[in-house]
Write a structure and sequence with these properties.
The complex is a heterodimer of chains A (about 400) and B (about 500). Chain A has about 400 residues and is an alpha+beta fold. Chain A contains 12 helices and 8 strands. Chain A starts with 11 loop residues before the first helix and ends with a helix. Chain B is extended and about 120 Å long. The chains are: A alpha+beta (about 400), B mainly alpha (about 500).
């Protein structure tokens, strides 16, 4: 007589029900079908209406327009561009300008944000109050307000080129923007860059080696002289061998304007200043919360183990604070990038301004252009959130280990 | 052993007094410990003082000391005329104040705006004070009645029908759309390789459309009869009130327990009737003020309040959808939320301004303000969904389990047990969303609406008031308005958070 346990019934219907309707079963399936029908209806209405409207307004559709001539000028572009280039090129010019202002804004915002956070955390009452007031004022004013304030009030109030505000006679600030020395590449540039790259790679390798030695064999290796040698020495050697990598062409006042030097357009200055100071206020709060989230006992435990204050900060406090800081910090970086689209208000030629603004009004193909613009930002934010989930997964794994 | 008999030493004179320890309390102590306790700190204090000096003094000088307080036009605010360095030009603000607050809203009708502000404040303030009772009625009035009343007050115009007419109209639109889709498919099948499939589907849709037509025939017939009568609005209102009250009475439990629902419904309809009568909606209402004339703080507040009110149901629906176990609804909610959260608001506004008009039938001219409102509502709804989802996650699982153990359905569990608790947890989050929405309303100035910032920018181009300090004065004034609103709300949010966490304090 067999006593093998009876196999459980297959319960095919139950599984099907689960897969189709979730926990709610057949009701859920019915809800889904109704929902799909409504969505299909709305989609049908949208497509049908859009088709009739485009026909009555004589607007072309499709992405063919991207190969047409744009026929308008852009006052700042990182790649060669003139008004006989295609809309594709306009798209990339705008995209690169968005990336430029975002990257520079992120750098400044991080620096200002960390400085303000240190002020707020300082035991000095006055300094922490000043930090607090900065955060409160900047956070409670709209970012567009601040962009317009810098552009229409502050930069417009600057003097004409002849009375420029000079900073060490190298930077000149006037109502036409910021005149900076123009870097001109010399023959020594490429060897210099190559030497720098080699130096960075070697330094990273050394760091990796030292960490392995520390964690696996408990051996402390002093690497900083070698790292310094690689990072400073190698480029120096290249400079000695091949000459200066860059020459700076200083701006000089000639007549009513400046000759030489590069001009940073005022729109860019206003946008960068406004975005970085605005985001810095949020970053300061994030950093402060991160540092305060590390328990006081951690610092005490570090010093009772005989670590110096700097070593405790570097090895114990900062890694734990970073764990709290990094995810919201990334979302602030993303916010800054998204806020850079406000450039359209002051005419800085970013993606939204030249592509979703000028190009739409010229071609009228709003659906394609706005979908492309939204797609770029969407891709960016999805990539960021994917990166953040990888980060979170790694943190969880290292916490569990 | 020591000699015990030796006389012990007894000190004759008092020990000299030690100096008192450094004072650590009071003002002096505070200065000593928090400002000047080390050389580094002294340096920082000096630095801070310098910084404050160079920011605070010029600001006060600009706003108050050097300011011009009276004048008729720009000449009053010029340095040559005033005879000293000129700071803020306040007469410019005084001249532009109505434009900054009402836009170009006709002067004779401004009392309507003021009345709306007053009504809103009267409903909102009690809602914000946790101590006051009747939160249910109050929030119902604020979230449902107030937007409708505000629309008729601000925009004007009347109504031609009521519930019956509107329902009949919407259903007729649906019927036409289904029939149209069927016809289109049947036509398409003539030129298609897989002709039978679209043909069959098209025929089915046409049949469905036909069925709907006859199903809603009583309703359309009733509407036509009502519209022919001498008092269409009141007749329609009466019929709607009777039908809705009867349905609620039956659903509420009939003779056994339905009285409460009946009384509530009748009271609501009585309130609506009073509203219609007071605003004369049946006789055309107030004169219509086109939204192009609206501007300034009015537009800012209209967009912010409509945005937050409209985003609540969207957010709740999306948050529940994202937690649902039904695959299609969950996937749709996630995609919807992540899409709108992933794009900047300005592209959403562009979408609403340029794309949305293409998506509706050509004979519907969508108003510019309404387009922006739709964009803002969708955008804020997606953010609100994430806030509310946080609140839903904070409600202990046992609550929903206990409710289903008591035999409550999913709808009852959600609406009576889970949501009320979740919404209480997220009040600070909702207020924070409102703050960022309030700040973000300034973006509508980019799509040619004149909110506070847009009106301010427009006022700069007035040659009558173009002086070197006009821009600074305008920004100072608008900045104060924005700051007062946002800072006040953020303090309120902190207060609520503190109150909600009261049980956790030691």
């Amino acid at each position: 007589m067999s006593i093998a346990p009876r196999k459980p019934p297959l319960q095919f219907a139950l599984r099907l029900k689960r897969a189709l309707g979730g926990k709610t079963g057949w009701n859920g399936l019915a809800a889904q079908i109704a929902f799909a029908a409504i969505l299909a209806w709305i989609a049908y209405e949208i497509v049908a209406n859009a088709r009739t409207n485009l026909e009555t307004q004589h607007i072309a559709s499709g992405f063919g327009f991207l190969n047409y001539n744009a026929g308008f000028d852009v006052n700042q572009s990182l790649i060669a561009y003139n008004n006989s280039d295609t809309y594709w090129r306009v798209f990339f010019v705008g995209l690169l300008n968005t990336i430029l202002v975002s990257v520079i804004g992120i750098v400044f915002a991080t620096v200002i944000g960390f400085v303000v956070a240190l002020c707020r955390l300082s035991p000095n009452w006055l300094l922490s109050r000043i930090g607090g007031i900065y955060v409160e004022i900047v956070r409670n004013l709209p970012v567009l307000f601040q962009i317009l304030f810098w552009y229409l009030a502050v930069l417009a109030a600057l003097p004409a080129p002849r009375q420029s505000i000079s900073i060490f006679s190298t930077f000149f600030l006037n109502n036409r923007g910021l005149i900076v020395p123009q870097p001109v590449s010399e023959p020594g540039l490429y060897p210099f860059l190559a030497a720098l790259a080699v130096g960075i790679v070697v330094a990273l390798g050394l760091r990796h080696h030292a960490r392995r030695a520390l964690f696996q064999r408990g051996q402390m290796i002093r690497i900083w002289p070698y790292v310094l040698g690689c990072l400073v020495g190698l480029p120096l050697v290249s400079m000695l061998m091949f000459g200066w990598p860059l020459k700076f062409e200083l701006p000089q006042l000639k007549g009513f304007n400046f000759a030489g030097g590069a001009r940073v357009i005022p729109e860019f200055v206003a946008l960068t200043v406004a975005l970085s100071t605005y985001t810095a206020a949020f970053i300061a709060e994030i950093v402060r919360a991160g540092v305060m989230s590390v328990h006081k006992g951690q610092m005490e435990a570090g010093s009772s183990l005989g670590l110096s204050r700097a070593a405790t900060l570097r090895l114990i406090v900062v890694p734990q604070a970073m764990r709290v800081i990094v995810p919201p910090l990334t979302s602030q970086y993303l916010n800054l990038t998204k806020n850079s689209s406000l450039a359209v208000a002051i005419g800085y030629p970013d993606l939204v301004s030249v592509f979703a603004g000028t190009a739409v009004s010229q071609t009228g193909q709003a659906i394609e252009i706005i979908a492309m613009t939204m797609g770029v930002y969407l891709l960016l934010s999805l990539a960021t959130s994917a990166l953040m989930s990888v980060y979170g997964w790694r943190i969880n794994r290292s916490m569990a280990a | 052993m020591t000699d015990l008999s030796a006389p012990s030493f007894v000190r004759q004179d008092l020990v000299a007094e030690r100096a008192a320890p450094a004072k650590t309390t009071g003002f002096i102590g505070f200065v000593r410990t928090r400002l000047l306790n080390s050389p580094g700190n002294i340096l920082l204090t000096i630095l801070g003082l310098l910084l404050a000096w160079y920011i605070v003094v010029p600001t006060i000088k600009f706003l108050l000391v050097d300011a011009v307080w009276a004048g008729k036009d720009r000449t009053a605010c010029l340095a040559e005329k005033a005879g000293h360095e000129v700071g803020a030009c306040w007469p410019y603000i005084a001249a532009k104040l109505t434009q900054l607050i009402y836009g170009f809203y006709p002067e004779a009708q401004r009392w309507r705006v003021n009345l709306t502000y007053g009504l809103g404040a009267a409903l909102l303030l009690p809602l914000l004070m946790p101590r006051l009772p009747a939160k249910g009625i109050n929030s119902g009035l604020f979230f449902f009645a107030f937007p409708v009343v505000a629309f008729f007050l601000l925009h004007g115009g009347g109504i031609a029908g009521f519930g019956v007419s509107w329902t009949a109209g919407v259903l007729q639109l649906f019927e036409q759309s289904v029939g149209g889709a069927g016809d289109l498919l049947v036509n398409l099948s003539k030129s298609s390789a897989i002709a039978p499939l679209p043909w069959a589907l098209g025929k089915v849709l046409v049949l469905v459309g036909f069925l709907i037509h006859w199903l809603i025939f009583p309703l359309t017939w009733l509407r036509d009869q009502l519209q022919l009568s001498s008092l269409p609005v009141w007749g329609d209102f009466l019929v709607t009130a009777v039908i809705v009250s009867a349905v609620l009475f039956v659903l509420g439990g009939g003779m056994r327990t339905g009285r409460r629902a009946l009384v509530g419904s009748l009271l609501t309809f009585a309130g609506i009737a009073v509203g219609i009568k007071l605003m004369g909606l049946d006789r055309g209402g107030f004169p219509i003020v086109d939204t192009r004339l609206w501007g300034g703080l009015l537009v800012t507040l209209v967009i912010a309040i409509t945005g937050i009110v409209a985003s609540m149901p969207i957010g709740i629906a999306l948050a529940l959808g994202r937690r649902s176990s039904i695959p299609l609804i969950r996937i749709f909610s996630i995609a919807f939320i992540e899409f709108w959260r992933g794009v900047p608001l300005i592209t959403v506004l562009f979408f609403a301004t340029y794309m949305l008009p293409l998506f509706v039938p050509g004979n519907f001219a969508v108003d510019g303000l309404l387009r922006a409102l739709i964009g803002v509502a969708i955008f804020t709804g997606a953010y609100m969904a994430e806030v509310i989802r946080g609140g839903l996650a904070a409600v202990a699982r046992g609550q929903a389990e206990a409710a289903s153990a008591l035999g409550l359905s999913w709808w009852k569990t959600t609406s009576l047990i889970v949501l009320p608790q979740a919404l209480r947890y997220v009040i600070p989050g909702i207020v924070n969303s409102f703050i960022s929405l309030f700040k973000d309303t300034s973006l509508v100035s980019i799509v040619a609406l004149f909110d506070l910032l847009g009106s301010l920018r427009a006022s700069f181009s007035d040659p009558n008031w173009s002086t070197p300090t006009t821009a600074f004065t305008g920004f100072a004034f608008a900045g104060m308005i924005y700051f007062v609103f946002c800072f006040g709300m953020s303090r309120y949010s902190l207060f609520v958070e503190h109150r909600l966490n009261a049980h956790r304090r030691h």
